[in-house]
Amino acid sequence: MIRNALASIMIALLPTMAHAETVNIYAAGSLKAALTEIARAFEAQSNGAHTVATEFAASGLLRDRIEKGEPAHVFASANMEHPRSLASRGLASGTVALFARNQLCALARSGLAVTTDTLLDVMLAAGTRLGTSTPKADPAGDYAYAMFEMAEKLRPGARATLEAKAQQLTGGPTSPKAPDGRNLYAWVMDTDKADVFLTYCTNAVLARKQLPDLKIVEVPRSLAVGADYGMIVLKDAPAAASALAAFIGGATGQAILAKYGFGRGDSAN
Fold first, then answer.
1. Measured between alpha carbons, how far is 265 from 267 in angstroms, rounded to an integer?
2. What is the pLDDT of residue 94?
3. What's the CA gap between 141 and 266, in Å, rounded?
4. Given a cut of 90, is residue 89 above it in pLDDT?
5. Nearest-angstrom CA–CA distance, 193 and 81
6. Tell me, what's the pLDDT at 265?
7. Phi, psi (degrees; rounded to nearest 5) at 107
8. Which of 105, 116, 161, 221 is the most exposed place for a label (fewest CB within 10 A)?
């Protein structure tokens, strides 16, 4: 009887097992908290039919790995350029979707006297140690350097000063990794590597949860840099990859992204 019952259960499960698909999503590190939750929600909605394997790193580094043949099915980047580059090489099955937005903020160490109005002055000050991510490898670094270009319009010579003093502390191929369980940006600030670190506002919020003494400084409108996040489904990905991309752009995915501070993308329903 028991053996017959087990056989019946296995027969009932065969269609699900036969069609179960694992979706590999490669995503920007700034999406880790939100997309981990989204992945679990997608799996739950599929009733076990699909699983999601996540890989998080700097978007430019992920693009390089995909170009070299790593088996990504969905690529969620912190900019539009990296997925567009893959699409232009014929590696995507569709167009690039703008699915989320972000902004740059400044993380300041405890005790540093800085406000939105004085942020540029403080960054330019000779004694201020300024940290950024790594341009080209990580879009956050590109956005920081775009901010330096905007500063040049306000203060001639500011761009050269800021670029010269900026330490590229994260996002590069050889950048140090935070210990397990530590937020990267909280760890960078806690180990006294910078007085001011330019990162996404979403990252800054997560860093301050681990290190409450950190100060989050909103960037003034004259220096504000927005970040558009682009997503593609890679060529020859399983059908579940398109379903996951649609889920991220849909109501549930967008609500989770909003919970972590991301703005809505054009692909949102």
1. 5
2. 87
3. 24
4. yes
5. 30
6. 82
7. -95, 125
8. 221
Q: Buried (b) or exposed (e) across 73-106, using 16+ Cβ within 10 A?
A: bbbbbbbbbbbbbbbeeebbbeebbbbbebbbbb
DSSP code at position 73: S
Give the model confidence (pLDDT) of 24-74 as tens digits.
Answer: 999 999 999 999 999 999 999 999 899 999 999 999 999 999 999 999 999
Place of tokens 């590229």: 168
Judged against a pLDDT cut of 80, whether residue 18 lies above it is answered with no
3-state secondary structure of 131: strand
Q: What is the pLDDT of residues 151-208, one digit of tens each?
A: 999 999 999 999 999 999 999 999 999 999 999 999 999 999 999 999 999 999 999 9
Number of Cβ atoms within 10 Å of the Cβ of 114:
20
Give start and end residues of each alpha helix (H) in the chain.
2-19, 32-45, 59-67, 81-88, 119-124, 139-154, 158-165, 184-190, 201-210, 239-249, 251-259
